[in-house]
Design brief:
With 331 residues, this protein is an alpha+beta fold. The protein contains 13 helices and eleven strands. The protein is 53% helix and 14% strand.
Length: 331
């Protein structure tokens, strides 16, 4: 019944049991449901992430196993429902943007196909993408725009990019790149980007990026086959509509990004862009682990940020922190 709110069948069973019979210990929940202890622990963690369960350990009399209490459903479930409704509204807006992009991609396909011009080329696997990127970098004449999600770049990636970027800059190609804020914590990546800046490249950062993307000379754009799996390959897009959409996305993100050399600015509430993005991700129902992946930081860093934000709001639980953040207009 509550799958749309992020509860699978087993998690819902655990929730209903804890709701109906408060103060149950872990072993009692396992016995009542006849489930594996690891599955019950995972369900309890999920309920805590969704602010349906008090995440603080409450010890049973005598110092035994912790007992679990469901938070008041009259407050927690409507909050979860409204959050899901807001998420669906955002997805609907995203579909509308995607629909416009599809229209731009296909508007002139027929005429270009009759000329024998391929507007979409599929590149299978990471090696094919790297080989094509090398070719395109050598052919670039005016500009190269890149979205680079994730934190630290691997030494192999930096070594392979160095001569290509240097030669392009020497030819007068303007290079602009947007990284995630998290890359500022990696000395090798930061050193490389500063070196590029010394040659004339421009770099900025944002807390999160939607995907990896490269746009060259307003003629070609490379986007991943699967944004969740960079090793799957890429699509090489050459239709004017698709390249224009990719370039407009880059320019919008560029305008919002923080230039390298400047600290990400804090807003009027004292929140950095990364903290604001973390609050938004948690409000959307992301766990600490998925929020860490989106931000390109470690799970430990997300938990530290969470603890700091909770302390700043004088909150005693994740649910209270979420309610207080909403009251303050932080989410």
């Amino acid at each position: 019944m509550f799958q749309v709110l992020g509860l699978d069948t087993r998690t819902e069973l655990v929730y209903r049991l804890v709701l109906e019979e408060p103060e149950l210990r872990l072993d009692e929940i396992v016995t009542r449901l006849g489930s594996d202890e690891r599955e019950v622990r995972a369900a309890l963690d999920r309920l805590a992430d969704l602010c349906l369960l008090d995440s603080h350990d409450t010890r049973a009399p005598g110092g035994g196993q912790p007992v679990f209490r469901a938070l008041d459903p009259a407050a927690s479930l409507p909050f979860l429902l409204s959050r899901r409704e807001a998420e669906l509204a955002r997805q609907q807006r995203g579909l509308e943007v995607a629909r416009d992009a599809v229209t731009a991609l296909t508007a002139r396909r027929g005429r270009r196909a009759r000329r024998g011009f391929d507007v979409i080329k599929r590149l299978e696997g990471l090696d094919a993408v790297r080989e094509r990127m090398t070719e395109l970098a050598e052919l670039a004449k005016e500009e190269c725009l890149s979205l680079v999600p994730g934190g630290a770049q691997s030494p192999d990636t930096l070594a392979a990019s160095k001569p290509l970027d240097q030669h392009a800059l020497e030819r007068g190609v303007r290079i602009r790149s947007i990284y995630q804020d998290s890359f500022r914590n990696d000395a090798d990546t930061l050193k490389y980007v500063n070196w590029l800046g010394g040659l004339g490249a421009e770099s900025r950062t944002l807390p999160t990026l939607p995907l990896v993307m490269v746009v060259i000379d307003q003629e070609v754009a490379l986007v991943p086959l699967d944004p969740e799996d960079g090793r799957a390959g890429a699509l090489e897009l050459r239709s004017k509509g698709a390249v224009a959409v990719a370039r407009q996305l880059f320019e919008k993100l560029w305008a919002d990004a923080t230039p390298l050399g400047s600290e990400p600015p804090k807003d009027s509430d004292g929140l950095t862009p990364q903290e604001t993005e973390l609050l938004a991700l948690l409000a959307q129902g992301h766990t600490d682990a998925t929020a860490a992946r989106r931000l390109g930081v470690s799970l430990r860093t997300v938990r530290r940020m969470n603890a700091d934000l909770t302390a700043r709001m004088d909150a005693r639980s994740r649910f209270q922190a979420g309610a207080e953040a909403a009251r303050r207009g932080w989410i």
